[in-house]
Each structure stands twice: as C-alpha cells, then as structure tokens.
Amino acid sequence: MLLFALFLIIRTGSEETIPDSILVFTKMPAAENHLAGGSENVPPDYKEARIVSLNYENPESGIKNLTSDFYSATSPSLSFDNQLIVFSAKVNQNDSWQIWTMNLDGSAKKKVFESSKNCYTPSFLPTGDIVFSCEIEDPEIGKTYPLFKILEDGSGLNQLTFHPHRDFYPSILYDGRIAIISQQFYPTKKSRQFMVLRPDGTKSQAFYHDQSDSQIKSTVRESREDKLIFVQGDGNVDELVVLSYANPLLPKEIIATYDAGAIQSAGILDSTRLVISAKSGSEGVFGLSAISFKGDEELIYKDEGYHSVQPVVVRKQKSTQKVAIFNFR
C-alpha cells in the first residue's frame, strides 16, 4: 500500500478592520512573582497575573483588565485576524493551568481544553487551530512538556512532539511552520534550542543555535520584513537579537545588550520598532518600552510594584502560508 502526502499551500492574512495601537500583555504583582532567568526551560507559573490591553499611542488612557474573573492569567497570543486572544489561566488558585480564548475586548471567554494537567503558552495557527504545551509525567523521565494541537472548539486533540523535552513558547512563522523553544532533559540535559516543525508535528529540526553559551529565553517573533526577533542570554548578559529568516547562518544582529535577567520578552510593534519587557537596575520592575532597530529606546508603560511582560501587538499580519496535508492511499 502506497501512501502519498500532498502539501497544499494556502495564503492567509488579517483582512478585517483591526483596532489601532493596541498592546496586549501580562501584568502581575512583582512581590509575588520571580521571573525565572536561569538555564532551565520552565513554564510561567505566575501568581495573580492579569492579561491587560493598552493603547500604546495614548498610554495615559490607562490599561483595561481583560481577565479580572480569573485567579491568574498569562501568555496571551492573538489570532491571525486579531479578533481573539488565546491564553493560559487558572480560575481558582489551586486549579491547573488551562487553555482559554476570549474576544479582544475580554468578552466571550471559553475554555478550550479541560485537563487535570497544567497546560501553558498557547498560540493560534493560521487555520484557527491552537497549539500549546501540556505537562506529562513519565515514571522514568519525569515531567516533560510536549506540544499539542487542538481545534478552537476543543475537539481533535493531537500530540505533536514525543521527545523527552520541554517544548514551550510556540509561535507561527510565515512559511506555516511552528517555532518552539525546546530543551532536552533526558537522558542528559542540554541547552535550549530554537526548533521548527510542520503543523502536523513532522519534520522537526533545529533552526538556530548560538555557538556561544547563550540560550534563547523568549518567544520568537517574525516581522513582516522576514526578521526573527528574540531574547537570548548567557548568564552574564542578555541580548535582543535579530536573525535573518532566509539565512539563519548569517551573523545575528544585536540591537541592544542588557544585564543578565534585565529583559524578559520582545514583540513586534511596527515596521521600525519593537516592544520589549525590560527593567533598569537589579531591584526594578519590568516595564514596556519601544525600541528601534538602531537601539533607541522609549518607555511606553511602567507601574511600580508590577511586572509587565509578554507583550503582543494588534497589527495587520503579513500573508501567511497554511500547510494543509492530504493523504492518498
């Protein structure tokens, strides 16, 4: 019996009218939350976190709390039409982290997946499917966090990765592949890697690994200009890095360098600027700043006593390739 796989490329983008200058991020009490910056790829177990939105061109208008009805909510990610947010949340303190969606204004909240296990860092595929990490306990290996995919209505759950790794922070590249930060923990622990795979879980491969001791610390974001943006650190310094999508073997561009642990995450603000979650001084809180590709930085939002992290921006998406797989026997 022969099995043929045909890959059909369909282009999609966000055609609907979208709000201007909206920034969505996670805000949490600094006294209750230590933002991990070590060598291990760990899930974001934040306490009393809130997903909020802000007009970054008019920050004086204040933030809007989108998840006041949860004990804690984190890891927002936008659908490709900018109409929905998918996130991980606990309704009550002792609940497991579960995957939810809501409208951009915080209305119509819906639990996507019901599990007794903790599930983290979800992201939308262009098809509307959702990928996320979920905790698996293995008697020999210990806890792993493979990647799963599910339809938006909660059906069709599929496991995508099966290696003894911790796979977190999925994002979608414009070629339709999923980018993840993956770290092997068995039989030996290795450094974190930037890996890519098809949306059906096949063709998993390493995309980038710094030759120094630096490790990627954040979700990888791709700009409309085919640049890959992420944060990496070696325990001494953190770097905001730009990498060529077309040729990741080209030398990386370092936009800015920070003290170790002083930058948490980055997103794409517009064609000339990024948005970063960073702090100044060892005792400071993480705020949000706009930074140009030349390194010029301007504060957008900061609230003493609270960390502001995981920024995502409502913006028109570049046409994205969906990869649909048809099997013929």
In a few lines, what is going on in this structure?
The protein has strands at residues 4-12, 22-29, 50-55, 64-65, 72-78, 84-90, 98-103, 110-113, 119-124, 130-134, 136-138, 142-144, 147-150, 158-159, 165-172, 178-184, 193-197, 205-208, 215-216, 221-222, 227-233, 237-244, 253-259, 263-268, 273-278, 287-292, 297-301, 306-313, 320-328. The protein is mostly beta strands and 329 residues long.
Features:
5-stranded antiparallel β-sheet, 4-stranded antiparallel β-sheet, 49% strand, mainly beta, disordered C terminus, 0% helix, globular, 329 residues
Describe the structure.
By secondary structure, this protein is mainly β. It is built from no helices and 29 strands. Strands 19, 20, 21, 22 and 23 form a five-stranded antiparallel beta sheet that branches. It has a four-stranded antiparallel beta sheet with strand order 4-3-2-28, with no helix packed on it. A hairpin with a 4-residue loop joins strand 20 (221-222) and strand 21 (227-233). The chain is globular. Residues 1-12 and 322-329 have low confidence and may be disordered.
